[in-house]
Amino acid sequence: MNGSFIDNLPRVYGLYTGGFIVFIGFMAVLEQMGVSADTLGILFVAFTIAIYAGIGWLSRTMQVDAYYVAGREVPALYNGMATAADWMSGASFVAMAGGVYFGGYGYLAFIVGWTGGYVLVNSLLAPYLRKFGCYTVPDFIGTRYGGNLARLFAVIVLVVASFTYVTAQINATGTIAARALQIPFELGVWFGLLGILLCSMLGGMRAVTWTQVAQYIVLIIAYLVPVFWMSNVQGFGLIPQFSYGGAIERIGELEALQGVGTLTPTESFAGLRALTTAHATAPDSAMASWKFVTLVLVLMAGTASLPHILMRYFTTPSVREARRSVVWSLFFIFLLYFTAPALATFTKLQIMDPNLATGIIGKSIAEVQALDWIQKWSNVGFLAISDSNGDGLLQINEFFMRGDIVVLATPEIAGLPYVISGLVAAGGMAAAMSTADGLLLAIANALSHDLYYKIIDPNADTRTRLIVARILLIVIGAGGALVASLKLSSILGAVAWAFSFACSGLFFPLVLGVWWKRANRQGAVAGMGLGFLAGSIYLYQVRFAGMEPWLGIDHLRFGIIGMAVSLVAMVVVSLLTEEPDAETQAMVDEIRVPGGATVLGQEH
Amino acid sequence: MSDQQSRAATHWQRTRNLTFVTLGIWFFFAFFIHWFGAALNSVSFLGFPLGFYMAAQGSPIAFVLLLYFSTRRQEKIDDECGVAE
């Protein structure tokens, strides 16, 4: 090929996408020849991981700026795809549609929050941090406010928020690897970690960037193809996202007939739920509205404070490209998020509607238990059926399942070929791996650059820095895998906590660092320290010490408390202490202008 | 004040105004309309209950368009003030 790698990107990823589609076709042929569904699953997962590892190997580097910020040469479009993969976790891919299925209208707060947060990223932070020229988020805090204490606090918040998140991702890779490769979960976790490290260890941010682009392509194909296929097979319309209004109306009628919300389950199965919430009905009370908007706020502010997202915008060639890549990121994320409610709606209708061949509610228990997909998923404990009232018919409160099924089992419920199930497994794996990679790298880079190089040993040479970074990556990954393998499900379930941790400690120190020249070191230290502390204490009280939440601010929303404390502490302490020196104020002026040199040098 | 400084000052003022407008629109689609989700649900839009539609599609679409247009506007401001890269 002529020209540099960057010039050839459209051709490289065009070939890759074409190759992946050919691979899917090849798998479909194998299925026709009688290859089993299990083998197809293994081939899908193993083949895609091998590709990512290959990209990771080709991107290996010993240069500091390539390792930390991919050499700042990632064009906006590709950085948008990489950010979308970085952002959409196993939870988004597997659990989002399930969340809407069970939570109905209330769960849509996640969709609003996880898209709208990018408006904050673009307007308040990304272009300015790019102009600053930092390697990591604590690098910005440490230089803007000065002093090791501010840098250290930023590192602590980053590590807590990202580690909470990464164990859940390693858990997801383990679950998918275990199911696709037929190995025990504990082994699956370590296998997943191996795949993650292969992508990131040798090439740092450069390797993660180019694997994340590849992972985005796999995950978006894997999410959209089944939905479009199902919609067209079942006659829901050509473009399902725009035509499910009728399905919602029909679900509303069926909910009244089948007693959704009135019939409560009389039995319980660990990890499984029966449907008890109406699909589209919004509760009409100020408290319900308040809970919706507070969740939206925490998720948005958390989006704008999570370092693994912000650091993606350090990799573009210019401030302008950073802005454009935020727009691309949101667009690519939007493609999946506006499909999730459509998927949830169709799956629910297929299960509930007695007029459809797939409907199971109201049928006889024996008939339902004979269905293939019911047997397969009850065998692995994802689903349970119990004739609680003994009438021999399946009621809505007698059908229990895990939310994950909505994405994983939909191809089977709709009777699509097994090749689609294999594709979905590969997509879920890509989503979980790409997010885990970004998070692990964010943690390891903060510890190696900010803690080791900037605080402990400023004289370390390049080679030592990059070796330390890699050792940390392995150690933290192993720590995450160890925690994940303990299956502390009550902790792993709470991906939302990462957002509250991040916004409690980092949102205002980051935003005010750009937007308020008067913000100083003492204020930032108080804002990070007290905000993070207040949020953490509140979380402990509400979740583990049995405290009654104030104003409906439960453990998913503790960032509201943390952010309020952080803002007040930061403003009050800043105003009570001396204003920043002229040099710092000039630095703030400098980052507000796109043109000119970055504040921190090319290598620092 | 030098020419460069005054250009930077104008640029920041216009950037700040654009950001306020952007965040105003963002606030409307992020919080304001969802506060009235139950009331909006009694209106039908493209066959959807409007409150559900806005949360599932309307607001995300609004965010994508908002970012696209505000980024274009910001690039114009950068160029006009002569501070673009």
SSE topology sketch:
The complex is a heterodimer of chains A (604) and B (85).
Chain A: H1 9-32, H2 37-58, H3 64-69, H4 76-87, H5 90-103, H6 108-132, H7 137-145, H8 148-181, H9 185-200, H10 204-233, H11 245-258, E1 273-274, H12 286-303, H13 307-310, H14 319-337, H15 340-352, H16 365-369, H17 372-379, E2 383-385, E3 399-401, H18 405-408, H19 410-413, H20 418-456, H21 462-485, H22 489-492, H23 495-515, H24 521-543, H25 559-576, H26 582-591
Helix pairs in contact in A: 1-2, 1-10, 2-9, 2-10, 2-20, 4-10, 4-14, 4-20, 5-15, 5-20, 6-12, 6-14, 6-23, 7-8, 8-9, 8-20, 8-21, 8-23, 8-24, 9-20, 9-21, 10-20, 11-15, 12-23, 20-21, 23-24, 23-25, 24-25
Chain B: H1 3-35, H2 37-40, E1 44-45, E2 48-49, H3 50-80
Antiparallel strand pairs in B: 1-2
Rg of chain B, alpha carbons = 18 Å
Please state how the strands of the largest beta sheet of chain A are arranged side by side: 1-3-2
Order of helices and strands of chain A: HHHHHHHHHHHEHHHHHHEEHHHHHHHHH
Kindly report the greatest chain-chain contact and the residue count on each side.
A-B, 53 and 47 residues
Q: Which residues of chain A sit in consecutive blocks of at least 5 with pLDDT less than 50?
A: none
Secondary structure category of chain B: mainly alpha
Termini separation of chain A comes to 33 Å
Give the biggest beta sheet of chain B: 2 strands, antiparallel
Could you estimate the helical fraction of the residues of chain A in percent?
55-70%
Number of beta-strand segments of chain A: 3
Whole-number average pLDDT of chain B?
92
CATH architectural type of one domain in chain A: Up-down Bundle
* Annotation field: number of helices of chain B: 3
